[in-house]
Amino acid sequence: MNSMNSVTSMTSMTSMTSMTSMTRMSALAADHEACAEVLSRSGSNFALPIRLLPEAKRRGTTALYAFCRRADDIVDDGANPVEARHAIDTFDAELSAAIAGGASADPVIRAVVDTVRRFAVPVNHLHDIIDGCRMDLDQTSYDTFPALEEYCRRVAGAVGLAAIHIWGFRSPQEALPAAHACGLAFQLTNILRDIPEDLARGRIYLPESEFRACACSPDDLRAGRIGPGFVQLASMNVARAADCYRHAAPLDRLLSTDGRIVFRAMFGAYRSLFAAVQKAGTRIFTERVRPGRLRIIGSTVAALAVGPRPPLRGRGVGITTHE
Predict the structure, then answer these.
(1) What is the DSSP string of 162-182?
(2) Theoretical Cys-Cys bridge with 169: which of 99, 175, 185, 230, CB 3.0 to 4.6 Å?
(3) Mean pLDDT of the residues in the chain
(4) Average pLDDT over residues 283-289
(5) How far apart are CA 186 and CA 263, in angstroms?
(6) Are 45 and 269 in contact (CB under 8 A)?
(7) What are 149-183's pLDDT values in tens digits?
(8) Which of 94, 120, 138 is the last residue of a domain?
(9) What are the helix and strand counts (H, E) for the chain?
(10) 3-state DSSP call for residue 255?
(11) How far is CA 287 from CA 190, 198, 224, 233, 241, in A?
(12) pTM, full prediction
């Protein structure tokens, strides 16, 4: 009788453990689904490339995207800087607690913690991303490019570094700088594309020292006085972004096969955005430029087929000016 009771007790414990495990797996699946909904609602150019990944890496990359989106929205959508700072600090603390094994009520945090553990993503990259978003509460302008690059390293370079841990890579001494360059190329493209939108939020990311070097000023930009100096300012920043694309391209041969596919798709999509910026010239200072969806898809497909094609060396911007 005692033996039978023991067997029954062990069977019951095994069943309970199995049910607990299934419950946790179900909850985790729901967390990742919540992240997928964030990506789906975003309209991001990353949505299609991410779909090309196998399931586990797709879930991890989607969780990383949702995490970045959440951090960015906390800062941009805050009622005021004080509330936004409190919210981003709380988000940062909740991430740290969850990484340490604590509970979190946020499905995005739970999903990204699962991703960190599953793919050995260095958690400092996630904190860098939050620190970069936090910088938008402290700074609305940058005097030099090195100062701007530090911001870009946090909000974009850190994303690239986290992503390649999910995708798989070799030769860290080559892959890590290339991933940083990729994040920088994408972020500089965003900065050049979003100048009017950022200006409406009181932010100017182009370095003030470069305005001075081009004989124009942030006040000219605010007033819509887009004179000849802005041609040089646009060309200078387009050339810098083009260099970043060239330094990012070698990442293609350093990634796992499925990582290479998603990298090519993202590179192609952003390459078309950059080409639109390049072509727009000084219109970037007064309107948000964007290629048509078919052009983005075409560039993505081309990159998938032949690999990343960096911008041509020496190609300048268009010379459309506004008197």
Answers:
(1) HHHHHH-BS-HHHHHHHHHHH
(2) 175
(3) 90
(4) 95
(5) 12
(6) yes
(7) 999 999 999 999 999 999 999 999 999 999 999 99
(8) 138
(9) 15, 0
(10) strand
(11) 13, 11, 11, 16, 19
(12) 0.87
